[in-house]
Write a structure and sequence with these properties.
globular, 7 helices, 5-stranded mixed barrel
Amino acid sequence: MANTPTPHIGAQFGEIAETVIMAGDPLRAKFMAEKFLDNPVQFNNVRGMLGFTGTHKGKRVSVMGHGMGIPSIGIYSYELFNFYGVKTIIRVGSAGSICEDLNLGDLVIAMGSCTNSNYAMQYELPGTFAPIADFSLCRGAAEACERLGYNYKVGNVFSSDTFYTENAHNDKWMNMGVLAVEMEATALYMNAARSGNRALTICTISDHIIKGLATTAEERQTSFTHMMEVAFSLV
C-alpha cells in the first residue's frame, strides 16, 4: 500500500495483524510478545516504539507500544486503522482510581471516556461527541474477568491531557461516577469511530488518587498481567 511504511511505523502493509493489543510502554509490548505470542516477529522499532506480530492460540495478533498521552496514541492508532488495515485495537495500561470501590490491582474496563482534550475539535461536530468502546469487546472483557475471577468495574474513565496539573478537579469527575483517570482512551475511541473500527481500553489500577495509595514495583509486575490475559482472551 502506498501509505506504508508511515512516518512512525516502519512495517510494510500485511506485516501487522488485524487485531493489535497496545501498551503505552514499548517494553510492555515486548513483554507481551514474549509471554503471549508464538513465533513473534518484530515489525517496528521507529522511535523505539516496538511492535511484534505472532500468533496466540493459532490466531494472528500484533502487539505494539503507543507512547504516552492522547497525541501519541492518536498518531499510532490512526495509522494502524487507516493505513495498515487494522480492525481492532485493545489498549492495556495503568490508571488512577477515583472510585472508593475500585482498589489497587483491580481492572477497569472503559466503556466510555470523558476528557479535557480538544481532540474532537478536528471533526467540527455541531455538539459534544461521546467516545465509547465497542460493545462486543466490552462485554467480552467483563465476561473474561468473571471467568478468571478478577475484580473489575465497567464504566467511564477520564482521559486527561495532563499528568501534572494545577487543578485536577478529580472530586468533580468522581461525583459524576467516573471510575479512574488515564491518558489515552479518548483518542483511541474517536479514531476507531471515525474509521469504522473497534477499540477497547482495559486498565489496571496502579494508584488510588483519593486514598493516596500506590502499587509497589512487585505488585505491578505480578498483577498487570491480568489485564493482558483479558485482552488476549478477546483475540
